[in-house]
Amino acid sequence: MSVRTNKPHEIVERALELSRADGCVVIADEESTANLRWAGNALTTNGVTRGRTLTVVATVDGREGTASGVVSRSAVTVDELEPLVRAAEAAARGAGPAEDAQPLVTGGPAAPDFTDAPAETSSAVFADFAPALGEAFARARAGGRELYGFANHEMTSTYVGTSTGLRLRHDQPNGTLELNAKSPDRTRSAWAGQATRDFKDVDPAALDAELAVRLGWAERRVELPAGRYETLLPPTAVADLLIYQYWSASGRDAVEGRTVFSKPGGTRIGERLGALPLTLRSDPHEPGLESTPFVVAHSSGGDQSVFDNGLPVAATDWIRAGELHRLTTTRHSAGLTGLPVAPAVGNLILDGGDPDRSLDQMVAGTERGLLLTCLWYIREVDPATLLLTGLTRDGVYLVEHGEVVGEVNNFRFNESPVDLLGRAAEAGRTEKTLPREWGDWFTRAAMPALRVPDFNMSSVSQGV
To answer: Which of 132, 151, 216, 251 could pair covalently with 327 via S-S, beta carbons 3.0-4.6 A apart?
Structure first.
């Protein structure tokens, strides 16, 4: 009999019963996905998947300290449940003392839905979206353009139980849409993307109309050399840069002098990073961007710890009104550094710009500059300054006297997101956006467009 025939909470409880370790954490992730793909204005594939992953964390107290062992497996049968628990215990006994060892988080009352069946997605999530997409295909075909792309929806129900009494549960929907429009000769391409919880807020017609405008802009081609240009970064590009900054904001690494947030003798917390009063924050209860309100750590490393599983996650300002306010920490690294405990959160919001200023209005206010679509192939060059390199993609447009006058060649850029925040001259209104580069790992973001007076296009790229 397969474990999947049992309810997730029963699997968690049974694994805890089987444990002989001094402490135990069990995480059951129930996942379902539904997807659509299309090419050349026609659907090509669709599918639905289901799966379960079970993670067991065993802790063993020894003379020299507490050790931990972690084992994760998918498609575990009932007969394999005890061997999984024993494997985690053996891993703990075979390991040295865990540097990040802390008492396991203690629990209050069980989550009221802990014993409920997992939430699931299905092809029904596309009930309204698919017909609207079909209508967009017809308009695109009539307009001489081809649409390519995919829509994906995931639902993950996570159950966490511990030997200290925690019984927590969270349902996380996650949807993404990526849409490319191409000219029939494939010389012009434009991209749009959207993150969504349920596809009810996705309008394929509006996205197709936006892409049609961008393909029209690309009918005129202008070649520009590398250099520094006034540049408008749309929300998706801002998100990709700031997510990497967020991933690099380890409190311990900063204290140890290894990051852009380090300074002699400590960190740059309290230092003003830019003239604009921008706030970079996370909140697990942010409307439309809700994320897990407690720590779920399947392994230890960086600034996450398996000992922190179940620790409440709170709204946190990482940068407050332009000043660095918090860096990510576990309970262990907070103790080492003297910084507040600040677990990472599953969303990221930048606000403090002009709520009445759209990207179109920022274009209209540009005498001469570049308008980007998105970034890709972002890589770190120098952690000490957080210098990143990457490429522009699917449309860089020249703006003159408040109007887009054509498409220019792609570029490789070299920039630090921390420096960009310091040099940004204008921020528009914050809106939900899909990070294109990091969309496989991080989708819950809301960002404004930014105007950077001297964005460094370090070389010309032949990418599209």
So the answer is: 251
